[in-house]
Specification:
single chain; alpha+beta; lipopolysaccharide transport protein A fold
Length: 220
């Protein structure tokens, strides 16, 4: 009985010390977790400000629903890029995701693209593509993969195209098909559009169809 009474006062300080150590350990974990969250939130905030600063100086409007870092690149969810054209009109480009290298802030890779281009006469052409690359300094957009341009007068189907918004140029060195509504079509190996459609040039094996029949012999 005396031995038990002697051990109990010794056990209590040890239990209290052990409990205090556990509480301290939990507190350290909570503080560490809070610090990690704070650092991550700070990084995301810096990334968001960087993205806005990089785009805001060269575009009329830019917006996105989320921002993060992926593989060392800044990513933006559902970005919307807008700009104006010197001769009137403008463009609005949307995508599912945008990726930007911090070392080249003016270059943006886009995935699953949509958007519209308005002409000086206010006619709007819709565009879509699987992927693209936007150069904010030159205001050019390279589209690739199931590219389509369409308005009330025609539909253009391409594998790739380079759009220069400032010049109003569209250039493709790959096969193109133009469906001119309602029943005409032109196919070619390449094409060039200048001055927002004022001049159009088809190259390579050019074929014109009217009502499903050749209108002219294939060009050499």
């Amino acid at each position: 009985m005396d031995a038990a009474l002697t051990l109990k006062p010794l056990a209590d300080p040890r239990a209290r010390a052990f409990a205090a150590a556990r509480r301290h350990s939990r507190l350290v974990k909570v503080l560490r977790r809070g610090l990690e969250i704070g650092i991550f939130a700070g990084i995301v905030g810096v990334v968001a400000m960087t993205a806005l600063r990089n785009f805001g100086g060269v575009l009329r409007d830019v917006s996105f629903e989320g921002v993060g870092i992926e593989g060392g690149r800044i990513t933006m969810d559902k970005p919307r890029l807008s700009g104006s054209r010197p001769n009137g009109g403008g463009y609005n480009i949307t995508a599912v995701k945008a990726m930007q290298d911090a070392r080249h802030p003016g270059d943006v890779d886009l995935a699953l693209i949509g958007g519209d281009i308005s002409m000086p006469d206010r006619e709007v052409s819709r565009l879509s593509a699987n992927s693209g690359h936007y150069d904010s300094a030159a205001e050019t957009l390279d589209l690739a993969g199931d590219v389509r341009l369409a308005n009330s007068r025609y539909e253009v189907f391409l594998q790739s195209v380079k759009i220069a918004f400032k010049k109003g140029e569209y250039v493709s060195n790959e096969p193109v098909k133009v469906h001119i509504l309602p029943d005409a079509a032109v196919t070619a190996d390449a094409f060039l559009v200048r001055e927002s459609g004022a001049a159009v040039r088809f190259e390579g094996h050019v074929r014109t169809l009217l009502n499903g029949r050749d209108a002219v012999a294939p060009a050499p």
